[in-house]
């Protein structure tokens, strides 16, 4: 309390001794800060209404009405990861290190239900009243969200799915079980421990039945041993099973924690996977 009082006295003295200081208030009505669109989508697959956030970072020299790749992210609420990913895209597109995309964030309702697959582990079932709903959430993306976005915005056939932790688990599961849904899959600290790391075996079986190269996959892990160990087992399986021509990357980031990995890993992944094409000879630069 004494330190607070001293600070207040010091601030008063500074104000009193500063010449020509005039107290000024804000003028005009308060206006909302808007960077994109917030929409709602009635979902039959999930039997609920979902809130969707959309951001298209400004792009220098882009043709009017140009179509963009679609970047979908679970954990996409305004109080979740949407705003910091939007910021990465805004800076990356502006400085020419990332191609323009349309960012679509899905705000959570029951996160642990939607982002987990089935499990045989009692300890897994205790994390939420409902788990194992990833198939329904994938149907929501495939049959409802992606068509609704394509009907409202100009998008290309290139689609990217990005998530962290349980959302990372969902990303990897979708890559393994329904690889054609997206072109590129990005997962940070995926919860591959789920169901006693059963997704690694399921992915291995799927790869052995599939012909041709798999879609692009980017994985990153922090210093968390419970996440690193199953991720390393998963990447070891990829080295054995992936068909020639498959593009994937594993990035250990031991300097990061589970709480800090999303932002730096997303910056790295976006720069690597959405790198702009080299400018044509003679093209003007901003």
- Range of helix content: 25-40%
What is the CATH homologous superfamily assignment? Alpha/Beta hydrolase fold, catalytic domain
Apparent shape: globular
CATH topology grouping: Rossmann fold
CATH architecture classification: 3-Layer(aba) Sandwich
Number of DSSP helical runs: 9
Along the chain, the helix and strand elements come as HEEEHEHHHEHEHEHEH
Percent of sequence in beta strands = 15-25%
CATH class: Alpha Beta
Class by alpha and beta content: alpha/beta
The gyration radius over C-alpha positions equals 23 Å
Low-confidence stretches: 1-17
| Strand order of the biggest β-sheet | 1-2-4-3-5-6-7-8
Biggest sheet record: 8 strands, mixed
Total beta-strand segments? 8
Average pLDDT works out at 91
Q: Report how far apart the termini are.
A: 54 Å
Total domains: 1
Reconstruct the topology from this structure.
Blueprint: H1 2-17, E1 37-43, E2 48-55, E3 68-73, H2 82-94, E4 102-106, H3 111-114, H4 122-125, H5 134-152, E5 155-164, H6 166-177, E6 184-188, H7 194-209, E7 216-221, H8 225-241, E8 248-252, H9 262-273
Parallel strand pairs: 3-4, 3-5, 5-6, 6-7, 7-8
Antiparallel strand pairs: 1-2, 2-4
Summarize the structure in short:
The protein is α/β, with parallel strands linked by helices and 286 residues long.
Structure description:
With 286 residues, the chain is of the alpha/beta class. It has a single domain, classed as 3-Layer(aba) Sandwich (Rossmann fold). 40% of the residues lie in helices and 18% in strands. The protein has an eight-stranded mixed sheet, with helices on both faces. The radius of gyration is 23 Å and the shape is globular.
